[in-house]
């Protein structure tokens, strides 16, 4: 029987033990975990303790509980901290030990409509570069992103290889210095027209990520709208109490 030691909550110790079994390969992706009753007997704890442990594992993305079917090991979600620092998708994945690349679906020049003109601080019908990419970590599609850039920012971009980091390319080839970005995140459901590209069922949960990026002269250089898979990402924030 597990005993509570030095303030470590009993459910936390059960959770850590189950997590160790998952990480060591005793339970692998897609495996069904023992029932709550079986876990109660195995750890000699209450059902409440088991449920707390499973809830924590589910929050962290290690398991998925399916009504009427049981609890299954799932692929851990990619943790994306919300910070003040601008980091590219390639940098984010590299920090997690994953290789990242993008598949360019469309790269054309279009005339700015009224909305784009107001957003990018240009005139209506001015040329705008439209770039649609599917972002991958390893071979798994994670994000569908549409970017709009004023043509003057990178006039030769339509002839470039945009499968890597767009910001790195803008900096190295066009001397564009990224200064800040304003981003908004909202929960959405993935439409059928996008779901097959992200390899998830239509109606799956996702995040919409809208971003407006400025250069050091406070001029908008990119507006992007991304759809991020909700089953693979979670956004986290750390806060502190002011003294």
What does this protein structure show overall?
This protein is of the alpha+beta class. It has 2 domains: 10-73, Winged helix-like DNA-binding domain superfamily/Winged helix DNA-binding domain (Arc Repressor Mutant, subunit A); 78-236, Chorismate lyase-like (Chorismate lyase, 3-Layer(aba) Sandwich). It is 27% helix and 34% strand. It contains 7 helices and 10 strands. It has helices spanning 10-23, 36-43, 47-59, 89-95, 114-120, 166-174, 192-198; strands spanning 63-66, 70-73, 78-81, 100-111, 127-137, 140-150, 178-189, 205-215, 220-229, 233-236. The strands form 3 sheets. It has a 6-stranded antiparallel beta sheet. Strands 1-2 form a two-stranded antiparallel sheet. Strands 3-10 form a two-stranded parallel sheet. A hairpin with a 2-residue loop joins strand 5 (127-137) and strand 6. Helix 1 packs across helix 3. The protein is elongated and about 70 Å long.
Structural class: alpha+beta
Backbone CA Rg: 22 Å
Report mean pLDDT, rounded to a whole number: 88
Please provide the count of β strands. 10
Number of helices: 7
How helical, in percent, are the residues?
25-40%
Span of the ends, CA to CA: 42 Å
CATH-defined fold name of the largest domain: Chorismate lyase
Uncertain segments: 3-7
Taking strands numbered 1, 2, ... along the chain, how are they ordered across the largest sheet? 4-5-6-9-8-7
CATH class of the largest domain reads Alpha Beta
What's the quaternary structure here? single chain
The 3D shape can be described as elongated
Major beta sheet summary: 6 strands, antiparallel
The count of domains is 2
């Amino acid at each position: 029987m597990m005993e509570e030691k030095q303030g470590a909550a009993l459910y936390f110790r059960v959770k850590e033990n189950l997590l160790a079994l998952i990480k060591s390969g005793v339970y692998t992706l897609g495996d069904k975990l023992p029932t709550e009753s079986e876990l109660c007997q195995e750890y000699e704890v209450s059902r409440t303790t088991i449920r707390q442990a499973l809830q924590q594992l589910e929050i962290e993305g290690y398991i998925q509980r399916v009504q009427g079917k049981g609890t299954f090991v799932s692929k851990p979600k990619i943790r994306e901290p919300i910070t003040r620092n601008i980091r590219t998708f390639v940098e984010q994945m590299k920090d997690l030990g994953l290789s990242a690349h993008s598949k360019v679906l469309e790269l054309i020049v279009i005339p700015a409509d009224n909305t784009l003109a107001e957003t990018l601080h240009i005139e209506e019908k001015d040329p705008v570069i439209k770039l649609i990419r599917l972002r991958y970590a390893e071979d798994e599609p994670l994000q569908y992103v549409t970017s709009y850039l004023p043509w003057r920012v990178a006039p030769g971009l339509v002839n470039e290889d945009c499968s890597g980091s767009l910001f790195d390319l803008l900096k190295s080839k066009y001397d564009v210095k990224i200064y800040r970005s304003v981003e908004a995140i909202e929960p959405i459901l993935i439409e059928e027209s996008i779901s097959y590209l992200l390899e998830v069922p239509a109606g799956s949960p996702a995040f919409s990520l809208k971003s407006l990026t400025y250069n050091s002269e406070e001029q908008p250089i990119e507006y992007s709208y991304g759809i991020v898979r909700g089953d693979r990402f979670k956004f986290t924030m750390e806060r502190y109490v002011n003294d």
